Each structure stands twice: as structure tokens, then as C-alpha cells.
Structure to design on (266 residues):
């Protein structure tokens, strides 16, 4: 009797461990999807309204659509910063994963700025 | 020198900063709803929606319409713009007051949403309205 109960409790512990691993795996997939989604969503307003180059980012002239593109880019960039913070607050991811997400966003921003500087230096 | 540079850069950066603040406001609310142990009633969502609607309202008029740069005795439509702006001001004030009221209610009762839900609601309204004001100061028409 005791051996069957101990084996059933061992099975229950193994099942709980497996569920924990499955949960971790699904959370990592969620983060991967989130990062990929952000790489697509954040540049989209600039793709549609930007006119083919990054010059509109620092140009003086405004215009309704360019302002709307900047607004949407700012909002989606804030979203890519906010979602890891919310997941951390809800306890779904660890603090280290949140900081990894922030670092990847920072690297993306630096890449865009370097690209902008590089295209400005080119002579057409 | 720095303030001059900031004023010159504001029309370039302003819409992006306004979008970021707007997003921050709504994400505060999402965080409160996700992390709330109790179910948040639909009534608590209303201040955020009405604040967004008010920000949209006062950004949909062009600033030149209410200026006195050109006065025409045949054009008396300025009062419509001013009425529209007044209504948007009333809606934004009521939404902010409603959010503060929900914060007080959440802080005083143990059942229902927590104090963080009420705080996030107030932060949401403030961020949305500030973002609307920022966008209003920097959007240019042409």
C-alpha cells in the first residue's frame, strides 16, 4: 500500500515537473513570438507613411500622415517595452528575461539610428 | 541654448513622444487588469475610453481656426470650434474625475479591484490627456 502511494506521489511530482517545463516552454515561445511581432509592427507605420527613406524622421516639415506615423511608431515602441514589464509583473517571466527584452529593443533602436546616420552620409 | 534646441526639435519629436505617452497610459491599465485578483467591472474601463475620445476630439480641430489672424465679418463659424473644444474639455475633466472617484472607491473597499487598479486608472487618464495636449502643440498642418 505504501509503495503504491509513494509511486503515485512520485508520478504526481513527475507530472507537476512536466507541467512546469511545458509552462516555461510556452512562455519562451510567447516571448519569441512577441519579439518577432515587434520587429514587424514597430516599423510598419514608417514603412507605409515614410516615403521610402528615413529622412522624414528628422525633417522639419510635418503633415498629417507623417505625424500619425510618428505617433503610431511611438505607441508601438512603448508597447514593446510595456509587454515584458506586464509579464514580469504578472509573474509569467523572470526579471532577467525582461531585461533581455529591453536590451534587444535598445539594440534595435541603435540599429535604426545608425542606419539613419549612414544613409544621411551617402551622396546620391 | 538647450531650450532653443528643444523648441526647435519639438515639431520633429513631439508626435512620437505623444504616442509613447499615450501607449504608456493604456499599458498601465492593461497591467492593472491583468494583475488584478478581482474582476474589474466594465464601469472602470469608461474613464480611459472617454479620455481617449476627448483627446481625439480636441486634436481633430485645426489650431488656425480659432486664431484671430484673419477676421471676416461674413464668417461666424468660430463659435462652433470653441463649443467643440469646450465639450472635449468637459469630457476630459469628467473622465479624470471619474478615474479619481474609482481610485477612492477601490482604496476604501476590500472587495473588488485593488488600489493599484484605481491608481492605474488615474495614471491612464493623465497620460492620455497629456499625450493629447502634446500632440496638439506639435502637430502641423499643410
Amino acid at each position: 500500500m505504501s509503495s503504491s502511494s509513494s509511486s503515485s506521489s512520485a508520478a504526481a511530482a513527475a507530472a507537476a515537473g512536466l507541467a512546469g517545463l511545458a509552462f516555461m516552454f510556452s512562455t519562451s515561445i510567447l516571448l519569441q513570438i512577441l519579439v518577432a511581432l515587434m520587429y514587424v509592427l514597430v516599423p510598419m507605420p514608417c514603412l507605409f507613411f515614410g516615403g521610402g527613406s528615413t529622412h522624414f524622421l528628422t525633417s522639419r516639415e510635418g503633415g498629417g500622415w507623417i505625424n500619425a506615423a510618428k505617433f503610431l511608431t511611438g505607441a508601438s515602441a512603448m508597447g514593446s517595452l510595456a509587454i515584458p514589464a506586464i509579464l514580469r509583473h504578472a509573474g509569467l517571466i523572470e526579471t532577467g528575461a525582461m531585461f533581455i527584452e529591453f536590451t534587444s529593443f535598445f539594440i534595435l533602436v541603435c540599429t535604426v539610428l545608425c542606419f539613419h546616420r549612414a544613409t544621411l552620409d551617402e551622396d546620391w | 541654448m538647450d531650450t532653443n534646441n528643444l523648441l526647435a526639435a519639438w515639431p520633429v519629436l513631439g508626435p512620437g513622444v505623444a504616442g509613447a505617452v499615450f501607449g504608456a497610459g493604456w499599458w498601465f491599465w492593461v497591467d492593472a487588469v491583468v494583475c488584478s485578483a478581482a474582476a474589474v467591472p466594465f464601469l472602470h474601463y469608461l474613464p480611459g475610453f472617454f479620455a481617449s475620445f476627448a483627446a481625439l476630439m480636441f486634436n481633430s480641430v485645426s489650431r488656425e481656426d480659432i486664431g484671430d489672424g484673419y477676421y471676416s465679418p461674413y464668417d461666424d463659424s468660430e463659435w462652433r470650434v470653441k463649443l467643440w473644444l469646450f465639450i472635449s474639455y468637459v469630457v476630459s475633466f469628467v473622465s479624470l474625475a471619474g478615474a479619481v472617484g474609482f481610485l477612492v472607491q477601490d482604496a476604501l473597499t476590500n472587495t473588488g479591484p485593488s488600489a493599484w487598479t484605481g491608481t492605474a486608472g488615474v495614471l491612464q487618464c493623465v497620460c492620455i490627456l497629456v499625450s493629447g495636449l502634446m500632440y496638439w502643440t506639435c502637430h502641423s498642418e499643410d
